[in-house]
Design goal:
Layout (H helix, E strand, L loop, with lengths): L1 H25 L10 E8 L7 E2 L2 E2 H15 L3 E8 L10 E8 L3 H9 L9 H12 L6 E7 L9 H10 L4 E8 L3 H13 L1 E7 L2 H16 L131
């Protein structure tokens, strides 16, 4: 019995230690591991991106540095959205150039290099299109917005990002403001804050490159997880249970069973025989003679008088009718028809 109790305690202790070690092993610094990043780029291709910085256009700098960043990413699902790159003055000029997916570096870089700035800055609608892609994704995703200005169409992007967060869509919003003024910066900072991400400012090509590198370190770069060692657990020392002497029990007193007197014999009473009962003799039934019936009187049929004779009336004979004598038809003499004479051809001696 004691051995069974000790085995149960050891088994319980092993289960506790196993659970603690697995729980500690799962605790990391909170950083991502390879292959669990989802990054969706939103690139501003409005007409203002043709602005010059240090002898190069903002769009040229953005294309070069974004292509470099995309090429450096490993084991990351990526996608690309652009706005204002097809039509001037069109707030609906937003295109989902590359769907979020794996092994699409070459496609994304090719699309980035082909962008030509033309139109407006519909930031709110662009974020809406990005959110639709991320809604079915279970893991938290990263949206990286590169813009050189504030919203120029309908909608408030800062308010809209807050609404997306309230709906439970799992994402972080990072924004790079490229050569923006104070008012433009306020809106872009609000977007990043509402999206749980960070805002990075860039006024030239070098700062833009550093901003992208900071984004990479913030949400993409993979670091080795650090594990906390499990706490040391002292081996339990078990004390043997104290020996317990069984108390001496007094023997039970002997109890003699009382002797019971035998039950008295009871004789069954003698029953008197039942008296004989004679069946009474019944008198025979009297004979009943059937009465003699008188024969029915003879009834003579009445004599009927013969029917009177009726003589048939005598009918007068019909008068005789003589047949009329018919005159014979007149004789018609047929005219004599003369037969035409047919002259026979004369025979000549020429033969």
């Amino acid at each position: 019995m004691m051995r069974l109790i000790v085995m149960k305690k050891l088994l319980f202790l092993l289960l506790v230690l196993g659970w603690q070690s697995s729980a500690v092993a799962q605790e990391t610094t909170g950083e991502k591991t390879p292959g669990d990043s989802n990054v969706l780029f939103i690139l501003d291709a409005s007409g203002s991106m043709w602005g010059q910085i240090g002898g190069a256009s903002k769009i040229a700098i953005a294309k070069q540095e974004m292509s470099r960043l995309v090429n450096e990413l490993e084991n990351t699902k990526m996608g690309l959205i652009a706005y204002g790159h097809r039509r001037k003055g069109d707030c609906n000029d937003i295109e989902n150039l590359v769907e979020l997916g794996n092994r699409n570096k070459g496609t994304i870089i090719k699309q980035i290099k082909a962008i030509t700035p033309k139109g407006k800055t519909p930031i709110t609608k662009s974020i809406e299109i990005a959110a639709k892609q991320l809604q079915p994704v279970e893991d938290e995703s990263e949206i990286i917005l590169v813009s050189d200005g504030r919203e120029t169409c309908e909608g408030d992007p800062c308010v809209y990002v807050k609404e997306l967060k309230q709906k439970g869509i799992r994402f972080r919003m990072h924004v790079i403001g490229f050569d923006v003024n104070h008012q433009e910066r306020e809106q872009l900072e609000c977007i990043a804050k509402a999206g749980g991400g960070k805002y990075f400012s860039a006024q030239n090509a070098a700062q833009f490159k550093n901003a992208l590198n900071s984004v990479k370190k913030q949400v993409i770069e993979v670091k080795k997880p650090t594990f906390r060692p499990p706490p040391k657990v002292k081996k339990p020392t078990f004390r043997p249970p104290p020996k317990v002497k069984a108390p001496k029990l007094n023997p039970l007193p002997k109890v003699e069973t009382p002797k019971l007197n035998p039950a008295p014999k009871v004789e069954a009473p003698k029953l008197n025989p039942a008296p004989k009962v004679e069946t009474p003799k019944l008198n025979p039934a009297p004979k009943v003679e059937t009465p003699k019936l008188n024969p029915a009187p003879k009834v003579e049929a009445p004599k009927l008088n013969p029917a009177p004779k009726v003589e048939a009336p005598k009918l007068n004979p019909l008068p005789k009718v003589e047949k009329p004598k018919l005159n014979p038809p007149p004789k018609v003499e047929m005219p004599e028809v003369k037969k035409p004479e047919v002259q026979k051809p004369r025979q000549t001696d020429e033969g």
